[in-house]
Amino acid sequence: HISPQENYFSRETLDRLSGKRTDEAWLEAKQRKPDTVYLMFSNLSPMVSTPQEDNSLCRFTYETVKDLLQKPATVLIFLGGIQETPAWFAFSTDEDAAELLKLCTERNCSFPKMPNRDLLKLNEEEAGIVAQARSVLAWHSRYSFCPTCGTSTKPEEGGHKRICLNSECRSLKGVHNTCYPRVDPVVIMLVIHPDGNQCLLGRKKIFPARMFSCLAGFVEPGETFEDAVRREVEEESGVQVGPVQYISCQPWPMPSNLMIGCFAVAISTDIRVDENEIEEARWFTRQQVIDSLFREASPAFIAPPRQTIAHQLIRHWIGMNANL
Amino acid sequence: HISPQENYFSRETLDRLSGKRTDEAWLEAKQRKPDTVYLMFSNLSPMVSTPQEDNSLCRFTYETVKDLLQKPATVLIFLGGIQETPAWFAFSTDEDAAELLKLCTERNCSFPKMPNRDLLKLNEEEAGIVAQARSVLAWHSRYSFCPTCGTSTKPEEGGHKRICLNSECRSLKGVHNTCYPRVDPVVIMLVIHPDGNQCLLGRKKIFPARMFSCLAGFVEPGETFEDAVRREVEEESGVQVGPVQYISCQPWPMPSNLMIGCFAVAISTDIRVDENEIEEARWFTRQQVIDSLFREASPAFIAPPRQTIAHQLIRHWIGMNANL
Ligand SMILES: Nc1ncnc2c1ncn2[C@@H]1O[C@H](COP(=O)(O)O)[C@@H](O)[C@H]1O
Ligand SMILES: Nc1ncnc2c1ncn2[C@@H]1O[C@H](COP(=O)(O)O)[C@@H](O)[C@H]1O
Ligand SMILES: [Mg+2]
Ligand SMILES: [Mg+2]
Ligand SMILES: [Mg+2]
Ligand SMILES: [Mg+2]
Ligand SMILES: [Mg+2]
Ligand SMILES: [Mg+2]
Ligand SMILES: [Zn+2]
Ligand SMILES: [Zn+2]
User: Cβ atoms within 10 A of the Cβ of A168, count?
Assistant: First the structure.
């Protein structure tokens, strides 16, 4: 149920209404409305209910959470809304998880322990909302001191800004990125063999057995996506890349990456793996990839789950020249 | 002299040799080599010599700068090299600028005061090198304290990492983005009228008189480029956008943005400007844009300089359906 152009974590259900972030009176009034929706995070995991295999977000009302919102360790962020329909907020709390779970009337609630796995069980709408909420809450949790002067900072603008409490601080003069949430661009690429019928996949030591996926790496300062693709592929596999084509991108809230999905055409084929990062890299044929995606018996490798942009890039590639 | 696919600040002349960043012995040996090139920054501006209109980077040897490198406020970063040819480093110092200028034997040297203007006068190779150097040095200048605990941090890995000096800090357990340079993705888009023959340009109050350029805005956490384009255009101009197409990107080291250039097809035409950010936004016809780019007498507006991706997007658009 993912459309070809849409990646998991990327659906925008809410209007962010960013113009309202500076309107404290509006935000305060919205906070108290009975139809306002609150999502609760503990340790950067949202409380979910798991009646079946899937997870769904537990939604709280102002009445239920208002005491928690008063606690000094709570961070509240405004997520948005849809015109006049309910506003959505998320908050993180460090209160005891067992006590928090008692606040919920839904069945089988929990704070999932493995975000990389458990956040992939939400539906598309909720995944999109969690992408924003978890990234911004993770930023609050890691950036509560001013990197410019070391003083504490405090949230502002509905949780989309933090300002330094040291009135002499440079970060208060003009606009500084230190005050805004961080988004880390990462290139992730399917490297295509010069013969057009094989692709390069690699595995990290931490991957499940036999799983191979696309190579990926952080974009560095002063670098384009295209050059980052060429550099990371060369570093990790020794393969040289020529043309690079952007396909689609995916927010990945672990904690706040933006995965930039590309096809990369190789101009060399010898593999020399960087063993610090990659355990093995291999060229797979189109047929091996098809067998793996469509779960033939004993495929040559196991593909990453459909919720990853790596999976979508691989699927897009096999659809490109084959008669499927 | 910019190829259609290449934006200013994006040429990669040096191999970053990122595998060498952790090799302290290699880095130290390279630092002392007589052919190693040092670039000197003061207040985030490189020393340049301006014999004519253009600027060129002043290059220093180890002998000339070794005393400066010992000063506690100096930050040194390794930029890369080309196989066995000279290694390149950049450093920032807060010593007196007049004294620093005396170290140089070239003519008409200075530390330009307006990076937004003066850094656009370098040649393509040097602009690409400055894009990396200035972004990373700006990060050191703004991020010298640990955002997680407020303690001081110190540079590592050839200046591509900072680690917290508090041995109990969470940022030392596992991998944390707080330790790595920040890159801020920004979408910048040419919005095309539903009729295909007009485009939307806006002006900020700080622009030179009559200049109009593409709309732009920071990508937020949990958002794709395409959704960021739609949100920012709606926020700044009230125009609704449908399809979005990525064209190319450009590092913009003021201090460390990555401009993601797109075409965006409008599905509405009424303009309602956000006056906090934009002074005016207008639809311009293709002919008005052509007149402006090719400097006809009294064009309807003045386009941004060729070194900006905005200029390149506009130029790309007029080349698309017109007989030029
Ligand atoms: N923003 C960042 N966040 C996390 N790790 C980073 C970041 N930038 C660079 N790194 C380093 O990049 C490594 C992962 O390599 P790669 O994803 O291939 O670039 C991490 O283990 C870090 O050492
Ligand atoms: N990373 C960032 N760096 C600087 N300003 C930011 C950042 N993120 C959000 N902003 C805010 O975005 C405004 C510029 O608006 P826009 O470029 O349209 O998103 C700035 O004045 C800041 O208030
Ligand atoms: Mg990698
Ligand atoms: Mg890598
Ligand atoms: Mg990397
Ligand atoms: Mg803007
Ligand atoms: Mg804006
Ligand atoms: Mg914005
Ligand atoms: Zn500060
Ligand atoms: Zn710390």
Answer: 9
